[in-house]
Design goal:
It contains ten helices and 13 strands. The chain is of the alpha/beta class and 319 residues long. The longest helix has 19 residues. The model has no long low-confidence stretch (mean pLDDT 95).
Length: 319
Amino acid sequence: MHKIVYLDAYTTNHGDISWKELEAIGEVAIYDHSTPEEILVRGKDAKIIVVNKARLDAKNIPLLPALELIVVSATGYNNVDIQAAQDAGVTVCNVKDYSTTSVAQHVFSMIFALYNRTEYYNYKVRKGTWSSNRDFCFYDHSIEEIAGKTLGIIGYGNIGKKVAQIASAFGMKVLASNSTEEQKIISDDIRLTDQNSVIANADILSLHAPLTNQTKYLINKRSLQLMKADGILINTSRGGLINEFDLSAHLARNPTFFALIDVLNVEPPTDFNALLEHSNCLVTPHIAWASKQARIKLIDGCIANILAFQKGEPINVVS
């Protein structure tokens, strides 16, 4: 059986999912985390390495003589030096589309948390505000409905399309932009248009674009000025899509503007991340992808990649 080493499995599974299906296809060693030094020790006899964020590059790949396959337990593979792997004759595979439903759900959980102020009202009830109120109900903030709002989506891939589908079901209008598709009407509620039109007309703007040289800091001082004064910006994609300095300044100047952020430029954040200081910015710790069902799909995707490689027919190969 092939020796399989999972170098950094903790974020994928810290005890709520069984490893038995992975363990059935090889001699498996699973580690929560691995330092650069531990990678060389733990991976020295491994034919297959599974890796999430640990770095595999020209410094360590040539020192892993048995290695034939790297399976990235994610869609993004920037932690693996693809050229170094190719030079060493090592195949690299990733896993796609495992988190579509999970991310789309998180987008709307953030919208509802803001519009319905669920956390705030739970706090007020526990502090006795409802108990001391003369009326049957208590509210001191407006509660918004999403029906009739315009949702802007930048990045109309699988996740963007899922978010648009859910938004349409809630009675929202959707404007989306995508670099690979022309402007067109998708349905009565969904229309593809140019990026600036999406940004300017959205009540809520949700980012689902990959991070590339072209998309880095696509949300900046100029694009923020295009947005509505009471707009909402959501990012569940990559932190680098947003210039955090520009966003922090915009939040400070516009108290009716909100940012709902699941990803940051530096993760975990430093103590000096300015976004954490704004009451009109809600931040979650990069969990949009992490539903239990999505993580099961991710593990299943890794297993599928390994089985295909073992049959001599690798799939999802990164080149």
